[in-house]
Specification:
332 residues; alpha+beta; 5-stranded mixed beta sheet; single chain
């Protein structure tokens, strides 16, 4: 209630005190002066009362608008408030509510993204699990030949390896997303980086009669060796899977004063134009993806590279797919 406003009461008591003091001094000088001072003080009291009443009504109106904003999401009519302290308060409240709204939208999108990711992960795990259950059921078949048993055992081993890779990759993603990974800033030999990334793929490339050609001298970059090996290894794995038997994968390194560039090219079918904008999205599988693809290798590679002040682009070259990686040098 307006009558319960303590600030108003204090103001009125102060005006009464000033009025009494000034009136006493005025009457001591002359009755006319006393009445003049008293009239002026009464006018001052009326102006103060009207001004405070209007300000209190505006505060009540602002309070109602805030209630509508919190309960129904009604926008705050900032234009209803004129310049002054109340306008500044309303402006700050408007900014705060906008930030809260944006934060709520971001939180909603994060929850939706988490739900979609969990659905994708469940789908990715369900496929090999179903195949494993079928293989186990077939292993229990009476009179199963040793040859068939070995085939099913190899299939189970392959499925377990795929699931193990998927789980490990998802754990790496979670660490990167949580910001718990501290990327080292070591000087890395690009030649050593390529050799380490290509080593796990040597047997697979040999079985497919694929050739790895490296054009690298003494180029270096600054970054985390282990994580960068992971990123480059995923890119090479993608090229290996899409390069036909007898094909070639070429890695070229080039260093400038601004960045170190690593280009990976293969002689596969390349990318469909519609797939290129989405290649680095999580769980995206292009039209040329194999059945065993999870659609997260390239996404992990991009996350690692970007977190180290780098960029990665995918395009079609004259003979197949081309990945262009640039690690920019930090200038102090």
């Amino acid at each position: 209630m307006f009558s319960d406003n303590k600030e108003l009461h204090r103001g009125l008591w102060l005006i009464l005190l000033i009025t009494g003091s000034c009136s006493a001094i005025g009457f001591a000088i002359s009755p006319a002066s006393g009445f003049l001072v008293l009239a002026a003080c009464i006018v001052l009291a009326c102006v103060y009362f009207v001004t405070e009443s209007f300000r209190y009504q505006q505060l009540q109106q602002l309070s109602r608008h805030l209630d509508n904003l919190l309960l129904y999401g009604t926008p705050l009519p900032i234009q209803n408030y004129q310049e002054g302290e109340l306008s500044i308060l309303a402006s700050q409240i408007q900014k705060m509510t906008l930030r809260l709204t944006e934060s709520a939208e971001v939180s909603k999108k994060d929850k939706q993204y988490l739900a979609d990711s969990l659905a994708d992960i469940s789908h990715q795990l369900r496929t090999p699990l179903t195949a494993m259950n079928l293989a186990v059921a077939m292993l229990r078949t009476p009179g199963l030949s040793n040859q068939r048993r070995m085939e099913l055992s190899r299939e189970l081993s392959s499925l377990l390896s795929r699931m193990d890779w998927l789980v490990e990759t998802l754990l790496k993603f979670s660490k990167l997303d949580a910001g718990t990974v501290q990327m080292a800033q070591d000087r890395i030999s690009v030649h050593a980086l390529i050799a380490q990334a290509a080593a796990p793929l040597a047997i697979a490339m040999d079985l497919r009669n694929q050739t790895l050609t490296i054009h690298c001298k003494d180029e270096t970059l600054r970054g985390d060796f282990t994580w960068t090996v992971e990123a480059l290894g995923n890119i090479l794995k993608n090229c290996t899977e899409h390069t036909p038997n007898g094909g070639t994968i070429t890695i070229t390194a080039h260093e400038t004063p601004l960045y170190t560039q690593i280009t990976v090219e293969d002689t596969g079918p390349g990318f469909s134009p519609g797939d290129i904008p989405h290649l680095f999205e999580r769980f995206y599988k292009g039209s040329n993806a194999s059945e065993s693809s999870y659609g997260i290798g390239l996404a992990l590679a991009r996350t690692i590279i970007v977190s180290q002040n780098g960029t990665i682009q995918a395009s079609n070259g004259s003979h197949g797919a081309v990945f262009t990686i640039k690690f920019y040098k930090r200038i102090i």
